[in-house]
Amino acid sequence: MTALLTMEELRKQRPDEPDRTLFSEMTAEIAAGDRVALLGGSGQGKSTLLRIFALLEAADGGRLLLDGKEARTYAEPREWRRQVCYVAQQPVMLPGSVEDNLRAASSLHGTPFDEALARRLMEAVGLADIGWRRAAADLSGGEKQRTALVRALLLKPRLLLLDEVTASLDPGSKDAVEALLDDWSAQEGAACLWVTHDLVQAAEHCRTVWFMAEGRLLEVAEADAFFREPATEQGRRFVRPDAEGRTAGRSEAVAEMKPEAGPTRTAGAKLEEGPGPVEGAKQAGMGAGVEGGAHT
Ligand SMILES: Nc1ncnc2c1ncn2[C@@H]1O[C@H](COP(=O)(O)OP(=O)(O)OP(=O)(O)O)[C@@H](O)[C@H]1O
């Protein structure tokens, strides 16, 4: 079966020092419906990789394919971005109201706005009571982050690129977003590539781990296997405290949680099936710089 997204020998030079490589030899694929945690220390290039996958930045080498079709052969990047949607770490609201943001995809593509689905999604992320006429710019950071996520989900992309999307959320909101993404993935069959520094979140909500270190994709593994026993020394150092007690993640909590296995579920509104995909939606409304995307 053809993978949904494939990268072959992807390479990126450092934007700040073009003669130095940020990462290279990156080869892996994402299957439809898979949930992949992209892990690694700060500055490895995780956000950069997501932006390359969203055609917002160009790779410096290698190939990127969707359904086996190379990115560079897409005459229209928005056709790619309609299917592969990036949710940025720093949410960017479009000018106008909350409703304008929620309607962005349908406005841009002339497709019907699924208000019932938008309301269900806003409720699921704990924003049922937020006024849709409020200026989006006035929302708090956490409200913007959740609104940006709902805006992305309304596109019904096949692959969600999630960049630390719960980083600025309180614990209750974080639980709600995690539960929503679990439900969404199960019901819509959407795949996720999820950058997170929260190893418990990765272990609970992702099936697969991609681990980046030293400018390479060092491990592609089942999440259970990765957290039980990383295959590389770098992976072991990443998930386990060192001699000084420093830890790159929350390995002890993960270790305690994993033997029982299986994702744990948190409370969240169950989504009902909407009337159908928002065909023709594009990512042009999904954040600053999206229109400036580049082919690999
Ligand atoms: N537009 C840019 N201009 C200059 N340097 C950049 C740019 N974008 C990324 N970088 C640099 O590339 C490196 C990788 O950045 P990136 O944000 O992709 O890493 P990351 O793994 O997502 O980090 P973190 O986990 O801290 O978010 C960093 O050193 C960063 O400073």
TrEMBL record:
The segments labelled Disordered in the record are 237-296
Coiled-coil-forming residues are: none
- Which InterPro entries has this protein been placed in? AAA+_ATPase, ABC_transporter-like_ATP-bd, P-loop_NTPase
GO MF annotation list? ATP binding
Which spans does this entry mark as compositional bias, Basic and acidic residues?
237-259
What residue stretches are annotated with the ABC transporter domain?
5-239
Q: Which PANTHER family has this protein been placed in?
A: ABC TRANSPORTER I FAMILY MEMBER 17 (PTHR43423)
Q: What is this protein called?
A: ATP-binding cassette domain-containing protein
Q: Which organism is it from?
A: Paenibacillus xanthanilyticus
